Amino acid sequence: MTEPSEPKAPRLLEGMRVLSFCHYLQGPAAAQYLADLGADVIKVEPTKGAFERHWAGASTFIEDVSVFFLCANRNKRSIALDLKHPGSVQVLHRLIASADVLIENYRPGVMERLNLGYEAVRRIKPDIIYASATGFGADGPLKDRPGQDLLIQARSGLIAASGARPTVTGCAAVDQHGAALLAMGIAAAYASKLATGKGTRIEGSLFNAGIDLQAESLTLYYSGKQTRERFQRDGHLGTWFHEAPYGVYELKDAFVAISLNPVQKIAAALGSERLTALARNDAYKDRDLIASTLADILSEWSFADLEHAFEPAGIWYERVNDYDDLLVDPQAVHNQIFRQIPVRGGEATIVNHPLKYDGFVPDLRLMPPEIGQHGEEILASLGFSREEIAGLVESGALAAARQAEATN
Predict the structure, then answer these.
(1) Residues 196-210: what's their mean pLDDT?
(2) What is 233-320's CATH number, 3.30.1540.10, 3.20.20.510, 3.40.50.10140, 3.40.50.720?
(3) What is the distance between the alpha carbons of residues 303 and 326, in angstroms, rounded to a whole number?
(4) CATH 3.30.1540.10 residue ranges for the chain
(5) Using the 8-state DSSP alphabet, how is residue 384 labeled?
(6) Using 50, 70 and 90 to split pLDDT, how confident is the model at 400?
(7) Torsions phi, psi of 201, nearest 5?
(8) Are 101 and 131 spatial neighbours (Cβ–Cβ below 8 Å)?
(9) Structure confidence at residue 51 as a pLDDT band (50, 70, 90)
(10) CATH classification of 17-213+339-407 is 3.40.50.10540, yes or no?
């Protein structure tokens, strides 16, 4: 009698094969969302490895492995090809013929120059789902400008709207949102393909993703016919469009975020006559006065005392966590949002897939791969003989895993 297997999240996209011609973050992260859900994602990368293998923020490498690479490349297989080598053509044709989806996030025109543009791929695989992720779009006046998260935050208005003075979001928010949008579009196109047998051309851009992040704010701004002066506000306020006290305030020993709450309710909880005197003011028109007054009052409070005052009053608030706090936050632990993984004898902490399915987080089936780790395995599954694979390696069209590691 066999032991029952441990229940796991369903692999909802099992059966989907994805070719990922991606680097940096937007494309790899989109492919990782699909891989987490069970898709067979094959990372097609240069023989010396994708860009994200060779760079990491704050120079964070573990045993010479880029943590930037680790954050968006789990549950994938890797094949390392010289896309300009004539010998890679037959490999690419067979890979494309076997795939449901091709994702790429090169600058516009690069895939066409490699003979891997949409029309060329569709001739090989008519029902392909071809997803492109660019900076500003596949065409238009800005298509050739560099599409990097900070620059998109600037161009999309996100920086201008994010603080009392232009403030950069402290993470690659646009990249990650663009990745999630692209994965959503691919999943929808795959559902359509299963129903109709037809492929889809999908075009995503960081620029549109940066705008989409601000759907509420932009809709309010344009529909209300506001002007840029509306962005000017007391530095404690979190947005240009919420009433006071919506924002972040400094206490004696911490920072606290205070959400949508009637001023009178907060005044009563704090026992503050100064704030009570402002409770009849318009909480939006007089938001700067209310926010600055509240900031002055709260500067004398500790978080423990504030918690004691706010909890019974039902005030919406949260202590401002830093990253050290977040890792041990009881809800983060309960949600299983972080995972520790071994890396060549070291250890890394990564962010798990953000959703649960039937109560479970998708499992880690494959570690982020070494360069070309699965190339020979993939080619064998496509019908290449051992001799043919050896010939591709010898010619330089294919980098075997050990060869790629040696040249890395």
Answers:
(1) 98
(2) 3.30.1540.10
(3) 17
(4) 233-320
(5) -
(6) confident
(7) -100, 120
(8) yes
(9) very high
(10) yes
Q: Closest by alpha carbon to 78, among 362, 376, 353? A: 376
Task: Cite the residue boundaries of each domain of the chain with CATH code 3.40.50.10540.
Answer: 17-213+339-407
Per-residue pLDDT band for 3 (boundaries 50, 70, 90) equals very low
- What CA dihedral angle connects 260, 265, 266 and 271, to 10 degrees? 180
| Helix/strand/coil for 153 | helix
CA distance to 90, 199, 269, 375, 404, per residue, from 116 (Å): 13, 16, 64, 19, 23
Q: Is the dihedral of CA 248, 251, 256, 262 positive or negative?
A: negative
Residues 376-383, mean pLDDT to the nearest whole number: 97
* Tens of pLDDT, residues 237-291: 999 999 999 999 999 999 999 999 999 999 999 999 999 999 999 999 999 999 9
Tokens of 133: 């992720």
Pairing of strands 61-62, 40-45: unpaired
Q: What is the pLDDT of residues 184-200, one digit of tens each?
A: 999 999 999 999 999 99
253 is catalytic: no
Exactly one of 175, 234, 296, 358 is catalytic; name it: 175
Tokens of 353: 């897939």
- Cα–Cα dist 2/386, whole Å: 37
Contact 165, 174 (CB under 8 A): no
Determine what percent of the chain is predicted with pLDDT higher than 70. 97
- Structure tokens belonging to residue 311: 């909890």
